[in-house]
Amino acid sequence: MATLEKGLNMEPIGTIATLPAVYGLPADRATPLPWSYVDERMTAAAHYWLSTVTPSGTPQARPFDGMWVDRRLYFGGSPESKWRRNLANNPAASVHLEDANSAVILEGRAALIRPDTTLADLLVAASNAKYDMGQKREHYEGTEIVEFAPATVLAWKLLYEDATRWRLESP
To answer: What fold is seen in the domain 24-162?
Structure first.
């Protein structure tokens, strides 16, 4: 897996998601959600669900802990784990939060990276704010972790009113 480049110059602009007409959507649907909704939910979440694909094409979902920093999700895990092997074979993945009523769903690509000092400091601050486990820079700096970069995000507070889709820069 290759390192993903960052292009975080502008806040993404969402559009009301197109849903099948059979859902009986109201004609006057609400305005799209702001990107801040995604940022706040991803930052605050204690757990996420990761879906990967096995070499045989079977989907696999696993819960995990992580930190949302600058429109990327960072997390660790053993290289011996099945999901890590899946990502090494196919970096395409989906991540979503536990709440289906107010969903945040991300589709994108994962890469193995080794954080530099700046990113390590951001991850320490995010981890200690969220999990309060006394993490230090050396827990991240130069250590191989996963960076997930979403290409598409779908989120809603009320599915039939404000389901919003963002298309981000290609990772």
So the answer is: Pnp Oxidase; Chain A (2.30.110)
Backbone angles phi, psi at 105, to 5 degrees: -125, 125
Using an 8 Å Cβ cutoff, are 15 and 32 in contact?
yes
What gap in Å lies between CA 82 and CA 35, rounded to an integer?
Answer: 32
Give the contacts of 13 (CB within 8 A, at least 6 positions apart).
Answer: 32, 35, 166
Q: Which residues in the chain show pLDDT less than 50?
A: 1-7, 171
CB atoms within 10 A of CB 64: 16
Q: Which of 150, 163, 171 is nearest to 94 (CA)?
A: 150
CA dist., res. 29 & res. 48, Å (int): 29
Dump pLDDT digits (tens) for 31-77: 899 999 999 999 999 999 999 999 999 999 999 999 999 999 999 99
Domain ranges of the chain: 24-162
